[in-house]
TrEMBL record, chains A, B:
Start and end residues of each HTH tetR-type domain: 1-54
Alphabetical keyword list: DNA-binding, Repressor, Transcription, Transcription regulation
Protein name listed in UniProt: TetR/AcrR family transcriptional regulator
One Pfam family of this chain: TetR_C_6
DNA-binding region per UniProt: 17-36
């Protein structure tokens, strides 16, 4: 499975061939198809595996509010140690917008779920009124976007991009901007805030 | 050329075939190769054309400082009217991190150039000390990243993503965070700031 993951990361889904994956795994193409039925289903399995090694454990034990936002910065820090998974995600998420891509629904659902989680965390951390869904969702999309966009830049020029520092700058700036009564200019919680 | 652009946007570079591009253009494959020599050179021409229709006119008339940062928000607004170019850019920039991709140098250079422009604009707008290159570059990478990341989300779910509003939130929050003496909580320039 890691061979398939690495091949999709190195070539993209469309350009990866089952023959190459089978060859690198020491299997025949028929052997791979016996287990996974199709290249698209192999991709699904790879994405599920990636979720387990995953950036956001979306289960019940997930940190909430401010802790979740800080966890995203930690994730950016850890991602700098896992180039393969970052590349897989960066390549496939963007490729998913091409015509008839088999991971399109996967990424659409994933962003929907993430948006809701991050928006909830921002609402909780900043004590935003429940009816102000627009600000929370726009800020949530921005937080997710900065993490994604940094990955592509970092893959191209790791020495020029500090994913954790840039993510932290944005999260901290948004907290202070959305809740100046709660967060000081460096993101520190104000006394009594 | 627009046919090649649309085909690369719809399929990615690796998965686009010269035969399909030629067919849609009413040419033979030999005819396309006569003009462009190779699929990789055709890609280069498409990227140059895209730069002309371009998000950032990097010439001398480019707005400076705060005006440049506001221009990026306008760009995000205009991008919501040009799905084709956004898709081309989102797909190719991420695909460029795959092995031996012919646009890898193009995107590496492009991010280097953009990083320098945005960092300069932030330094000027926020009156950051020249020696504080790290903060300006981390913030610049974040601004570029948020614009890129939003494009993928928007392509997958245009109704759930307001690229301009999310970009504006981040630019405004960063300005206030980097230069609280100059910018108020809504990004307005403070009197005398």
């Amino acid at each position: 499975m890691h061979i398939a993951m690495n091949t999709f990361a190195a070539r993209g889904y469309n350009n990866a061939s089952l023959a190459e994956i089978a060859d690198r795994a020491g299997l025949t193409q028929a052997g791979v198809l016996h287990y996974f039925r199709s290249k698209a289903l192999l991709l699904t399995s790879v994405l599920e595996l990636r979720d387990q090694s995953g950036i956001e454990q979306l289960g019940a034990g997930r940190p909430q509010g401010l802790a979740f936002l800080r966890h995203l910065v930690d994730t950016a820090l850890r991602n700098a140690e896992r180039e393969g998974i970052v590349r897989l995600y960066a390549v496939l998420s963007a490729e998913s917008v091409t015509d008839d891509h088999p991971a399109q629904d996967y990424f659409r659902d994933r962003y929907d779920g993430l948006r809701a989680f991050v928006a909830d965390a921002l609402r909780e951390a900043c004590e935003l009124p429940d009816e102000d869904t627009e600000t929370a969702e726009n800020a949530a999309n921005a937080v997710i976007a900065v993490m994604d966009g940094l990955q592509v830049q970092w893959l191209l020029a790791p020495g020029s991009v500090d994913m954790a520092a840039s993510t932290d700058l944005v999260v901290t700036a948004l907290l202070t901007s959305l809740a100046p009564h709660r967060f000081g200019p460096d993101g520190e919680i104000r006394p009594g805030g």
